[in-house]
Amino acid sequence: MAWQDELRGIYHIAIKDMRTYYLKPPALSWGMVFPLAWTLAFYLRSPGDFAELVPGLLAMTIVFSTTAAEAVVINFELRLGTLERLLLAPIGITSVLLGKVLGGFLFGLFTTAIVAAASILYMDLHPDILGLTIIAVPSLMVFSSMGALFSVSVKEVFEAQTLLNLPRFLMVFLCGVVYPISALPDGLQLLARLLPLTYTVQGLRISFFEHGDSLLWQDFAALLVFMILFLLPAISLLHRRFR
Amino acid sequence: MSREEPAILVDGLVKRYGELLAVDHISFQVTEGEIYGFLGPNGSGKTTTIRMLVGLAQPDEGSASLLGYHLPAGINQAKRYMGVVPDVSNLYDELSALDNLLFMAQLYGVPHEEQKPRAEQLLRDFGLYERRNDRFSAFSRGMKRALTIAAALIHQPRLLFLDEPTTGLDAAAARSLRALISGLSDKGLTIFLTTHYLEEADLLCDRIAILVRGRIVRIDTPAGLKRLVQTESLVEFTFRGDILPLAKELESRLGKAKAAFLDPRRIRIYGGDPAQIFDTIFQFSRDIGIGIEAASTIRPSLEDAFIKVAGLSPQVMAAEKSPGKGRG
Question: Between chains, do A84 and B90 touch, taking CB under 8 Å as contact?
Answer without folding.
Answer: yes
